[in-house]
Amino acid sequence: MLDNRLLARFESVDTTSICDADKSIRVLDSGIRGRSANRRILGPAFTIRCRGDFFGVLRAVEAAAPGDVLVVDGGGIEIAYAGELFARGALARGLGGIIVDGGYRDIAYVRGCELPVYSRFVTPMAGTTSDLGELQISITCGGVPVAPGELIMADDEGVIVVDPKRVESLLDSAAATKEAEAKLIARLAAGATLSEGLNVAAHTEALLGGKASALRFV
């Protein structure tokens, strides 16, 4: 489980500011959507691969450690790999969330659930229970690779995957971005224009001249 310091630092930023810090961040495709009341996730991935059978997800609910985020490679199949019982079981074990590249059901419960739940589909049809599935292997979820132990971050904007060795520096950069944005927002609220808070003119001139440049706060 991650320490409370990292969790608190993530609370002050968001996935957009982390993506601004690094354009190579892996972002799950937007077809995987938040289904629950709480959509904020920060935790290590506990990976599962299964196809049309949800027994592997049940095994993962029981095997994962508190704070782990179940990341299910369900092949994008429109079959429910989990529902209310699995969400309740994950809450009982203190897990950090469930992300399914496939279906989820029992949305009447899930939409008010404090466990973060993301899925590609909502469907009433559950899979079978005759296959063990594969746990803690490298998978693909939402079109991006995910390895066991990599950090999953999610909020209302979407889900990203981060190398745990980089999380500290990314959170530093994201916090700096949020601070700069807050200053610009205050200036805009006071009547300033975007060009007064960003190097629009200088950046335009540099690009017209074929020079390397970056849009930045001023």
Structure description:
Keywords: Magnesium, Metal-binding. It catalyses: oxaloacetate + H(+) = pyruvate + CO2; 4-hydroxy-4-methyl-2-oxoglutarate = 2 pyruvate. The protein contains eight helices and eleven strands. By secondary structure, the chain is an alpha/beta fold. The protein has two domains: 4-164, Glucose Oxidase, domain 1 (3-Layer(bba) Sandwich), CATH 3.50.30; 179-209, no CATH class. The mean pLDDT is 96. The protein has helices spanning 4-11, 15-21, 55-63, 84-92, 107-110, 167-189, 194-197, 200-208, and strands spanning 26-27, 33-34, 41-49, 69-80, 97-104, 117-122, 134-135, 139-141, 144-146, 151-155, 158-162.
List the helices and strands and how they pair.
Blueprint: H1 4-11, H2 15-21, E1 26-27, E2 33-34, E3 41-49, H3 55-63, E4 69-80, H4 84-92, E5 97-104, H5 107-110, E6 117-122, E7 134-135, E8 139-141, E9 144-146, E10 151-155, E11 158-162, H6 167-189, H7 194-197, H8 200-208
Parallel strand pairs: 3-4, 4-5, 5-6
Antiparallel strand pairs: 1-11, 2-6, 3-7, 3-10, 8-9, 10-11
Helix pairs in contact: 2-6
User: What is the H/E string?
Assistant: HHEEEHEHEHEEEEEEHHH
CATH architecture of the largest domain: 3-Layer(bba) Sandwich
- Cα(first) to Cα(last) distance is 39 Å
The first-level CATH class name of the largest domain: Alpha Beta
Mean pLDDT: 96
CATH topology of the largest domain: Glucose Oxidase, domain 1
Per DSSP E runs of 2 or more residues, the count of β-strands stands at: 11
Percent of residues in helices: 25-40%
Number of domains: 2
**How would you name the CATH homologous superfamily of the largest domain?**
Ribonuclease E inhibitor RraA/RraA-like
Major sheet attributes: 9 strands, mixed
Shape: elongated
Class by alpha and beta content: alpha/beta
Q: Tell me the strand percentage band.
A: 25-35%
The low-confidence runs, each spanning 5 or more residues with pLDDT under 50, are none
